[in-house]
Specification:
Elements (H helix, E strand, L loop, with lengths): L2 H12 L9 H11 L2 H10 L8 H34 L5 E3 H8 L13 E4 L5 H10 L3 E5 L7 E6 L7 E4 L15 E6 L2 E6 L1 H15 L2 H4 L4 H10 L5 H8 L2 H18 L11 H15 L4 H11 L1 H4 L12 H13 L8
Parallel strand pairs: 2-5
Antiparallel strand pairs: 1-2, 3-4, 4-5, 6-7
Helix pairs in contact: 1-2, 3-4, 4-6, 7-9, 7-10, 7-11, 9-11, 11-12, 12-13
Length: 345
Amino acid sequence: MGRLEALRQLSGALRGRPARRTDWRAVLGMANEALVTPQLHVALRGAGALDRLPPDLRAFTEEVFVRNRERNRRLFSQLHHAVAALNAAGIAPVLLKGAALWASLGRPQHFDRMLRDLDLLVEPAEQVLAVEALAAAGFRVLARYDEPWRHVAAELGRADDVGVIDLHRRPPGPLRMAGFPQARRPAEWDGVFALAPEPAAQVVMLAIHDQLHEGGYWRGDLPLRHLFDIAALAPHVDWVSVEQLAGARLTLRAVAVQVAAAHSFAGLARDWPAAASLAVRLQHLRQLVQLASPPMVRPLAWVAALSEAANLLGRDRLVGDGPGGWVDRLARFRTIARPAAAGPA
């Protein structure tokens, strides 16, 4: 089975509508790659379709589901400890990525999205105090990054933690995203207080990170886990704000292409006209061709890059995380040329 058909079958199963003839081994392989196996198990269970899996695959998804739920329980306990330590130092951190999604969905007790780590953002003036407060609470500094253009200032963790804390000085992705979390909403639970970016800002940060920072816009990568994140956030999203935050033509198109992919694969309603424009539909079709035909990934990436050459060579730091100038611009083209296979991330 080709990757595009496997992706379509996986997305249908994740939406509780598995195809009658599903290649479950191919689908599960892609689910593992895309880090959505626990969500697949939950969706199939909710649809009463778990018995359609071969017994060994059903046992595997059950095991991953149980282990991930326990891991997430421990991660959110760890998050509570970290936020409590920061609050004691007078700091209200901003939750990012998976933690921000969890907060925006009402902090559900059972959260079956897989998390790599915990991402917290503090103001630059608070970074030293934040590290000291976390260290005093037992979180050891595992790595420190002093370059001001890096989005992560430090990584911290404890011996019995199941994941690390990435302490950010700005959101992951291009430098122009640094101001996005200014539109924040409170997240308060069990006596601790944090903030989370508004859902519109989360959608834009996810899309620009995946499409431009990681180069998915050029190579046709489809980050399935994030497409379902966008679909989950959609009921809370102000699409006018999304358009305002996206800003420049290339960033707006990249966000719209990711939203169009969420329409195609995650069941997102077509509430945003920008995601249905002809230019966006053509770019989305080009990404599907890259996904279906790996030899076309890099040639079509360069076709897309040539069509956006003026934006790529401009002054806006849309892709690179470097210190600016030609170093940053060359980093953009390295991102485009990166020989990564198209597919879920």
